[in-house]
Amino acid sequence: MGVAFPITEPIIKQLFQYHPTDLQKNVFGLHFTNPVGLGAGFDKNALYLNELDALGFGFVEIGTVTPKAQAGNDQPRLFRLPHDKALINRMGFNNNGAAVVKENLAKWNDSKNKHATSKMIVGGNIGKNKITPNELAWQDYNICFNELFDEVDYFVVNVSSPNTPGLRALQEKDALKKILSELQNNNAGKLNPKPLLLKIAPDLTDEQLDDIVSLAFEIQLSGIVATNTTIDRSMLSTHSIQQSEAIGMGGLSGKPVSKRSAEVLSYLAKHTENKIPLIASGGIFTGEDAADRLKNGAALVQVWTGFVYEGPAIVKNICTYLSRL
Asked: DSSP state, 95?
């Protein structure tokens, strides 16, 4: 899959892979060689799993995948705010569609099984097409779920991206209950049901978070990913605020979202009484960042903007720090 590098691959693995036994853990029935994952939005079409595995990720989320291919929003749509170690993106679920992504995943799984080269967990992050009305969104999520079911280890329902018009309205209790109920009923009919998780925005109120917690228990979700990008720009420095105003719409990620993402994580851990596994995402750059999230209720952590700024050694650096604690 992706760009092959057979000569340098062993060297890259030697440089960047680090899977100390003390960091291995089982979460929602899956075995993770380390707790550091790559969030959705980086490998949208499951093209670079071999390369990401070589960099040592314990798990990778592909997608967000929609039933039909879509081009996403107009370019440019990804912007750096280096002064604050942040990104603004308005990608808009650009991907090649569920059928093509399934083919890519099948090739990866075939190679992995044939050569027994990887234990990296792969999650499928699923969404709806832009043209699908919200009242029919549950159908899109079910299409993606069925298409990718045999090829991914777990699923994440993405209703929290700010870059698809109206999508975040699906986080409201009734709309969300419809989507998750349909998926879980579908899941229950499978021979071996897959873990089903929900990814939420950092901009939710406590009341909305309480609804999420209630639904998570009612629907028996396997976990929650906290959090996606934010539409709040108030935590940016003056320099970056000026930049962001020129950039316009989009979700903010990186260091500025760290505090709020950590607050949401702690709130969820407290109100779920640590009975539902949580994946921390948002502003994780260092081993200290990861350790703080794990201490405050996360079972696993995900990087994205940190990967962009810190580079390919981020997983090894985080795992080395965690292993020394």
From this structure: B
